[in-house]
Each structure stands twice: as C-alpha cells, then as structure tokens.
TrEMBL record:
Residues 6-182 form the Thiamine phosphate synthase/TenI domain. It comes from Actinoplanes derwentensis. The keyword Amino-acid biosynthesis does not apply. The lineage of its organism: Bacteria, Bacillati, Actinomycetota, Actinomycetes, Micromonosporales. This is Thiamine-phosphate pyrophosphorylase. One of its GO terms (molecular function) is thiamine-phosphate diphosphorylase activity. It holds the Pfam family TMP-TENI. GO terms for biological process: thiamine biosynthetic process. One of its GO terms (cellular component) is cytoplasm. PANTHER family: THIAMINE-PHOSPHATE PYROPHOSPHORYLASE (PTHR20857), THIAMINE-PHOSPHATE SYNTHASE (PTHR20857:SF15).
Length: 204
C-alpha cells in the first residue's frame, strides 16, 4: 500500500500542545498516514514515541524517517540515507519484506537521488514553507509534476490551504505531505483532506 491522501510529518517544536495529541487530532480530522521525524531525539525516546503513535495511527500507517523502522515496517529516507540493511541484493534489486521486515520505503527526491528499491517519493518544496524559510526555490504544483517522478509522489512544502491541496491533486500527486501547518493547527487536516480528495488525484 502506497501512502496517499494527507500524510502528516511530525514536528514536536511546532506542535500545538503535545506531539501525540496533535497527531491524534489530525488523525481524527482525516489524516491518513503519519511520518515520525524527530531524528535528533535519543534512540530510546524516539522508540517510545513510535510505540505511542502506533497506538493511535491506523495499523501499518506510521512511517519512520530514517533507515531504522523502530520496530515497524515502513521507512522514509532522506536523499542520502542508505537503504535499510537486508532490503536490497548486491545488484540493487529489492528483496521481499520477509528478509528485513520492511514492506514500504519512501525517499525525499529532488530529481537525482537513486530510487532503487523505493516505493514512493516526496517532491519538495512545492510552495514556500514557513517551516524551512529560504528552502527552495518553490517548484509550484506544475513544476513538481514536471519532474516526472517514476514512482508515486507526494507533494511536500507549504501546503497550508485547500486551494494548494487541490492544485497538488490536479497535478497528479497521490497525496500531500504536511508538517508545520497541521502540527500548529491539527483541525486543518480535515480541510486539506477534503480538498485533496475532492479533485480525485493521481495517475498511479
């Protein structure tokens, strides 16, 4: 199963209240998937957070940023992250989930990273983003589509309104990945989910 719809990326520093409660409210309002970031936390704290989030995120829909799935089966890799051990053969072919326990791999993609073994990518920044000022230049929805990702893609960056969600859906994204806007206002998840779904996105 490939992530789609609204995918929420965690950011405890911008969350309104506790991170877990912000995620819980976003899920209640329609978020379909969650990516646990917080890569600066000590391992034990991050593992504990993964356990807490798996209790409230729909089964199998917590994705962990980085090659260690923290006891789960899904990871999202930065552009330079290696594939998790045990998921690829010497010639780069993807092995079955049985050898590693990992069944879903995503990667942040800017048009040049190796996508061997990858199931989906995020393309960013689609719009200017408050969370990463100066990150860009912004691609726009048409520019993101024009990159022609060879696997299903999620639009990421600055998607903080229904209009932008609809633009990404119309451009062919299978989902929208949102961090700061939903962390600050979890109820926004409902508006973004409805707007994205209303266009009937995706070509995959």
């Amino acid at each position: 199963m490939t992530p789609g719809g609204l995918v929420v990326l965690t950011d405890r520093r911008s969350a309104s209240g506790s991170l877990v409660e912000a995620v819980r409210e976003a899920i209640r309002c329609g978020a379909a998937w969650v990516v646990l970031r917080e890569r600066d936390l000590p391992y034990a704290r991050r593992m504990a957070l993964a356990v807490e989030l798996r209790a409230i995120v729909p089964s199998g829909r917590l994705i962990v940023s980085g090659p260690d799935p923290l006891g789960g089966s899904a990871v999202h890799l930065a552009g330079a992250d290696p594939l998790p051990s045990g998921v690829a053969s010497a010639d780069g072919r993807r092995l079955g989930a049985g050898s590693s326990g990992i069944s879903l791999i995503g990667r942040s993609w800017h048009g040049f990273e190796d996508l061997s073994g990858v199931d989906y990518v995020t393309v960013s920044p689609v719009y200017p983003t408050v969370s990463k000022p100066g990150y860009g230049p912004a691609l726009g929805a048409a520019g993101a589509a024009g990159m022609r990702a060879p696997v299903p893609w999620l639009a990421l960056g600055g998607i903080d309104s229904a209009e932008r969600a609809r633009e990404c859906a119309a451009a062919g994204a299978v989902g929208i990945a949102v961090m700061g806007a939903v962390m600050r206002t979890p109820s926004l998840a409902g508006e973004l989910t409805a707007a994205f779904a209303g266009v009937g996105a995706g070509r995959w």
